[in-house]
Amino acid sequence: MTCVLGMVVQREREIRNFVKTPYYKIIGTFGEENSSFTAEWKVTEKSYLWESPKLYNESGFRKEDNAKQFILSLKEKKARITEVKKSKTKENAPLLFNLAEIQNEAAKRFKIKPDETLEIIQNLYEKKLVTYPRTDARVLSTAVAKVISKNLNGLAKGFQDEEIQGYLKKMAEEKYSTNLLKTKYVNDSKITDHYAIIPTGQGFENYNQLPELQKQMYKVIVKRFLSIFYPPAEYSKISVTIEVEHEKANVSSFTEPNISNFVENKEKNVSVLAKEQFSASGKVCEKLGYLEIAKSDEKQQEKTQTKKQETKTLEQKEGNNSEINTEILKQEQENNLPKEEQEESKNNLEVFKKLKKGEEIKVLNYETKTSETSPPSRYNSGSMILAMENAGKLIEEEELREQIRGAGIGTSATRAEIMKKLERIGYIAINNKTQIITPTLKGEKIYDVVYQCMPDMLNPKLTASWEKGLDMVAKSEIQPEEFMKKLETYINSKFNKLIIREVK
């Protein structure tokens, strides 16, 4: 519990101490007036500014004046297409829900706390609508996968929901495979006690009596379940690389460039050929596949747009709550882009199809674009659950991280209670509208006391390693006496150091 408080306080202090740093990108507009596109400059080894102190990062300048000076050096220089790369990609549906994932989803979607989510899923379980909720697994066992048709047939016959029935009908008409055995959704090695949360295909006599929120939660679980039977989403992508040459540039005309490649020429004060690279890409979804289900909530989202905008304003005031696991983040970035960005990407793709490698392209304009660094996101109640589940991944030492791989803080059954207790005793506050977590003054004082006495208690690695040890005891991989001996040795060493420090 103490390390969870530590994670919240440390994140809050990172945000408080964060100083935004502006930097300046170079954006070029290429093509014809009626079929143009923008591309972003990035430094390469061919650039005059390779490893230059003027740069903040590979695509940005520290000072706007330097960025504008660089733009002037590009004026009236020829641009040529050096690469047109076409590719097709596929993306499968995400893994199934475990308790942490559904708690995170509920926090984002419904703005409810993890303990409330657990209570809802537990009720659905008791009503025989879903499988056991307190699970860390996101996959199915081989035994369950072999009889998964029972769950599907149960939904088809018993769940009187027009939308869900539409998905099931399409599965039947298109003859989507229900053989999951050789897919990523079945893995016995990733299951300890219970498999992922899925609909049972039973209990529908209880469905109509459920509160509306519980009905919505059930449909979320059903949709995630059905999506694994749908084909992958398919994308077409075209990436374009453009080079602009400094045909007669004199290196001495650039102030303080760090171009190791051109040192000899710089000393001689002669002209050299440098190339500046711009890149752009367009991506469009050719076949929705499982996204047909994943995107089905858009209509509902449009109905609640006003409410979501109000919530967004609150989130901006209190901190961004978008910290989620890598898989879902990727999907939101690539699959759930705002409509205007999707349209721009589609238009770019049509323009790129006409381009050919080696041909010159017209430069319409160069401009600077101001960007700035962002502070880390505050935890919300859902992302904190995920962080607790994956605490072992936060360990920097590679060897130790591998040793306690899979270890986390608490269990699927206790994580929500840990957060609830921290809130109840006044160490953290959870905003009911945004689910954003912040430490209280009391919580920060407790943190400071612990930090002075035993800072390891605030580190997730200590708790994760203890959890791993307890798991090894449960699996009879080590004896309880061995674990307790190591624990006692550790505690005694810490207290001895404290006593020595106090004496001094």
What descriptive keywords fit this protein?
504 residues, alpha+beta, Topoisomerase I, domain 2, Topoisomerase I, domain 3, Topoisomerase I, domain 4, 9-stranded antiparallel sheet, two-stranded antiparallel ribbon, 20 helices, 45% helix
What order do the helices and strands come in, and which of them pair?
Elements: H1 2-17, E1 22-32, E2 35-42, E3 55-57, E4 60-61, H2 64-74, E5 79-91, H3 99-109, H4 114-126, H5 142-146, H6 149-158, H7 162-174, H8 212-227, E6 233-250, H9 263-268, E7 271-287, H10 291-294, H11 298-303, H12 305-318, H13 326-335, H14 339-352, E8 360-361, E9 363-372, H15 381-389, H16 398-403, H17 415-424, E10 428-430, E11 437-439, H18 441-453, H19 460-474, H20 480-503
Antiparallel strand pairs: 1-2, 1-4, 1-9, 2-7, 3-4, 5-6, 5-8, 6-7, 10-11
Helix pairs in contact: 3-4, 3-15
Low-confidence stretches: 248-270, 301-337
The coarse silhouette is: globular
Mean pLDDT: 83
**Could you describe the largest sheet, including whether it forms a barrel?**
9 strands, antiparallel
Give the helix/strand class: alpha+beta
Number of helices: 20
CATH fold-level name of the largest domain:
Topoisomerase I, domain 3
| Estimated helix fraction | 40-55%
N-end to C-end Cα span = 31 Å
Radius of gyration: 28 Å
Which CATH C-level class of the largest domain is it? Mainly Beta
Superfamily (CATH H level) name of the largest domain: Topoisomerase I, domain 3
